[in-house]
Design brief:
By secondary structure, the chain is α+β, with helices and mostly antiparallel strands. The chain has helices spanning 24-33, 82-94, 139-158, 164-167, 175-190, 196-207, 252-260, 286-297, 304-327, 341-356, and strands at residues 6-7, 22-23, 38-46, 54-62, 64-69, 103-107, 117-121, 216-218, 227-229, 237-240, 247-249. The strands form 4 sheets. It has a 5-stranded antiparallel sheet with strand order 3-4-5-7-6, sandwiched between helices. Strands 1-2 form a two-stranded parallel ribbon.
Length: 358
């Protein structure tokens, strides 16, 4: 047995308090069936954990791949849909956006791992998180990366949503209204305690819906920490990752989320504490990000305050779900940091109220 999350065979999971996330012999058979590499499979978890879908590096004697799957069931309605996530990326590539990992197989058969999953080619790059990758020591390089972060978003929003593959993801009605309604419903499912500010912000957002822009692909979690840069040129984003929240909707939702999760040089940390390296001198300011996006996309992006508030409010709802999983003992030891959401969720709700009404 390799551990609670990764086991060699299904029999090795007998007696475990939680079902495994990866069963190696079943994954090996799936890869073999699709002609993906050869030899034994070694797996280890990579990337962030706790609230999003889980990602594992699969290394074979010949070939390396990445497996993406949901957390352990039960899952909130419509959340963690990795099959949809995979199909959106395939459709987006068809729509003209190429900064993506290459998806090579999708498994909807839940008998293998207990949930659907998909497999991507391994892309050898760096995800900028707590530390700047080598090559970003100087201000010019940092500014170039900040600019490319915006340029990649402009490219996403330029994808032709009229292509048959992408058009299938469009839904009638207002994306902004659906977001508020859906996350208000998720709050009722996720909540572990009473936090009146979450309800108040949701009510305010619903009462102040902005007029929509022409729909585009929306990533839904767009920030530097969900991108990958190249080893040779860390100023260039080679792939945008984590499409779990992807949809067709209002492009300002992505720009508002980017601003809500961006720490500008010399400023305080953003409320979520994400992508802290952007606080280093040389990275663009928030105002510069907005100016570059408006110029590149040709869009009027106001009222961005509403979308920043939406982003932080949604984060509060999601983080409460993670906190609930922590309280129920569903997370691994490496996810003990989820305990911080006891105070973090009320803080995010307050930040959402402040941002939305700024």
């Amino acid at each position: 047995m390799l551990g609670g999350d990764i086991v060699e065979t299904a029999a090795d999971a007998n007696g475990l308090s939680k079902p495994p996330l990866v069963v190696l012999d079943r994954v090996r058979a799936f890869l073999d069936e699709h002609g993906l590499g050869a030899g034994e499979v070694r797996a280890r978890r990579i990337g962030e954990g706790g609230g999003s879908n889980f990602t594992f590096l699969l290394e074979r004697d010949r070939g390396s791949f990445v497996l993406r799957r949901p957390p352990r069931p039960p899952l909130p309605p419509s959340a963690h849909d990795v099959v949809r996530e995979a199909r959106l990326q395939l459709a987006l590539r068809e729509g003209g956006f190429e900064r993506l990992s290459t998806i090579v197989a999708v498994c909807e058969d839940e008998s293998l791992l207990g949930v659907p999953f998909y497999v991507m080619e391994f892309l050898d790059g760096l995800v900028p998180t707590d530390e700047a990758p080598p090559g970003l020591e100087g201000a010019p390089a940092r500014r170039a990366l900040g600019h490319d972060l915006v340029d990649a978003l402009v490219e996403i929003h330029a994808a032709d949503v009229r292509t048959p593959a992408l058009a299938g993801f469009a839904r009638p009605g207002s994306y902004n209204e659906r977001q508020v309604r859906r996350f208000a419903q998720l709050w009722e499912i996720n909540r572990t305690r009473e936090i009146p500010r979450v309800d108040e912000v949701g009510t305010w957002l619903a009462a102040n819906l902005p007029e929509p822009l022409a729909p585009t692909v929306v990533h839904g979690d767009y920030r530097l920490g969900n991108t990958m840069v190249g080893h040779a040129d860390p100023t260039r984003i080679v792939a945008v990752l984590d499409w779990e929240m992807g949809a067709i909707g209002d492009p300002r939702a992505d720009m508002g989320y980017l601003l809500a999760t961006y720490s500008e040089p010399g400023g305080p940390p953003n409320p979520l504490g994400t992508s802290p390296i952007t606080a280093l001198m040389g990275f663009p300011t928030r105002a510069e990000l907005v100016e570059r996006y408006a110029a590149g996309s040709g869009r009027d992006v106001e009222p961005l305050a509403w979308f920043e508030g939406l982003a932080l409010w949604k984060a509060a709802v999601f983080c409460e779900a993670i906190y609930g999983r922590y309280l129920r003992g569903e997370l691994g030891a490496e996810d003990e940091r989820a305990a911080r959401f006891e105070q973090g969720v009320p803080y995010l709700a307050e930040a959402a109220a402040a941002a939305a009404t700024a």
